[in-house]
Amino acid sequence: MKTRLITAGSVMRLGVVLLVGLGVALADHVADAVGGVRDAAVGARGGDLFVSGGLTHRAGREIVAFIDSHRGEPVRLVLDSPGGYAGAADSVRDAVLEHGSVGTIVAGYNTCASACTAIFAAGGTRMAGENARFVFHAPRVVLGPLSFPDPFGDDPTRYAVPDDDDGRITAALEAFLDRADALDQGEAGATARELTRIVPGWITDLMPSDAAI
Fold first, then answer.
1. CA separation for the pair 169, 153 (Å, rounded)
2. Strands 48-52 and 41-45
3. Which residue in 70, 44, 204 sits closest to 52, CA to CA?
4. Within a domain: residue 11?
5. What are the tens digits of pLDDT across the range 38-65?
6. Which of 45, 173, 182, 205 is most buried, by CB atoms within 10 Å?
7. Residues 127, 180: Cα–Cα separation, whole Å
8. Which residues form the domain of 193?
């Protein structure tokens, strides 16, 4: 009897886990279908992956799959994105950090905002054109004309970089974001050139805006 109860309990727990997983997956597909984020174009050139457009869950899965398929090889993510879903960005960010040899690039006059900025920050090297623009703000849920904080997207470390052992980059970044209340209701934006002065080390390499990638 005891064995039967344990088995039934295990089956029930497994069923709950599967249902939750299915619910999350369906929620991601529904968000992509009805949300206001335009799907990014994603294309590869050797070990480089070019991402241009919104970071939907579909785009996030494609980026993660590319990173996972290049284990043991250097990878570069070339980003040009107005942002997207925090969950998609967090999945990509985790994959970048786990891989350990991913560089991120925002070239020319391109923009990297919100969810894109969180991915950029995870790179082991972080290159940007001097006139590229970065935008930081807390995750939001947008429903038509309504916008409110995402109750599931709060992660104050989302914009942190991995090579900050003494915490100086984090301290400078937090001061910059605090001035604009960017982790709550506000928004902070700056060019790559400005960020190298305001938050030294957050961008590792500043490039001319006409540099070839």
1. 23
2. antiparallel
3. 44
4. no
5. 788 999 999 999 999 999 999 999 999 9
6. 173
7. 24
8. 39-207
